[in-house]
User: What shape does this take?
Amino acid sequence: MSRKAAMELIRRGIQHKSSHDFGTLTHRFPFFPSNLHTLGHKHRRGSPKPRVDFSNINDVGDAICLFREIVRMRPQPSIRVYTKLLSTIVKMKHHSVALSLFDEMRRKNAPVNEYIFSIAINCYCLLNRVDVGLSILGIIFKSGFKPNVTIFSTLIKGQFLDDKVAEAEKLFKKLLVFKICEPSDVMILTMINGLCKAGQIIPAFELLHALEKTSWKPDVNAYNALIDGLCKGGMVDDALQLLSQMTAMSVTPDVVTYNPIIQGLCDDGRWEDVEHLLDEMTNHNISKDVFTFSVLIDAYCKEGRVKDAEDVIEDMMQQNIHPGIITYSALINGYCVEGNMSKAKEVFNSIAKKGLKPSIVTYNSLMDGYCKKGNVKEAWRLFLEVPRKGLKHDTITYSTMIHGLFNKGRFADGWKLFNDMEARQVHPDLHTYTILLDGLCKNREIARALTFLHSMEQKGIIPNIITYATLINGLCKNGKLEVAKDLLNALPSKGLQPNVQIYTTIVGSLCQEGSMEEAKLLLVKMEESGCAPNSRSYNVIIQSLLRRNELSEAMPFLEEMCERGFSADTTTMSFLIEELQGDRENVMLFEMVKKLVPKDTM
Assistant: This one.
């Protein structure tokens, strides 16, 4: 809300409440006598300060009316009354209104102190006007007050909120050098947290270490902020090292310390380290909270380890911690990834019985699961149900449904839904555009796909390697190998390196066209560019050679495949068995086949 709008709200509040509804006002605030408007001038000297009841404030309008009555009281109420009233308005997030009332207090010579000034500075900082907040600092000095550590902490936080990181650091250092105030735990936390959120992890790390050598030792919250910043920056090992260090500094970690590290380890798939940390928490009597459980459940489900996720929920219930909608959404997603739609629907139906409401994330997961199973009808039913449940379709909802329709060959319906998405101002992202590009390729509209790619770039949507992989795959499947090769060669100029999927797709197309030598050369180029072939790359070229009865040409690739620990897929294995049946004396091939048998079939 702007200052102008706030003043208008105050003006309307005065007219409506004071002129037209004064009786209601005195009823709602019983401490005001009916003849209050005459008491201001007749109040006897020495009368006790009036008591003010805040319990009837339900909205900002009530707060404004109460302020009007307070400033008319004689004698004036305690300054704590003004402080409490302004704090109440700030809690309602009506910062501009609080500032307008602060200005009026100054004009009417109402009592103010450093706490009132602190509230005003905080409001300006939350409105990204830290410059005005700093100017109030001068007024504080002129008024004979000494700014306390809370005021300076607020200003530092405001500078971070206004992206003035260097200014925040400069102010903090000035406070220490000139000994203007002793930094509190809150101020230290504000600095560490602000630096981390600004991406300045190393300066935050250095600051914490510098403070460790002073009398202003960082507390657990400061360590937690830095650990969280390290983990979000992908520096999980540094976070683990800091965890050990804080223990050495006699700072006891809590569950907030462990949560971001556990999440970082889960994201990296480092399950042994996760188990070690969980055991460490147990040994230190640190109980897992809702966030810990949710991270574990989400990570297990993404890994397809739904049984482990179920065990975590069981552990959660035993500790009398009830899963929320985020946890159940993660579990539903896990069942969908597993393809177990009956179980996913069972959990979905149980949510309401637990007093919870599905979120759009819940619906998105369930819709995606049905689309991947080919049940677009049920996914569409859920899509239509979303607005009836008071939820709004988001980008993921539309993208999921469009993809599902395209996979069933319903291209016209998919594009119609995309048009509806734009009409409703739900903004498509790169994933949405990649799905649309894939749909054009599947519908053999290659010229339109290339034009669509160009229009994406004109809109400022920068294609990534997945987008190009999708288009190259579509080009190859539609017999446009030369165009695909040109696009492959152009990728480095776009700042992208071809991935193994792109190389393998083009190798496969070269093999289908009989260009075996070019396919072999591309495999070599692939390796030289730092993109090692995977199991599919080898299977593709080996199958092509065996189809041409060129076993001798396939043998070097089979040997490489063995050396890299890859297995033959079903098609490759059937070709090799056929070769063995025709040449039972080929001991070398027999030994090779034994090595290439997939381990899960042995």
About this structure: The longest helix spans residues 3-20.
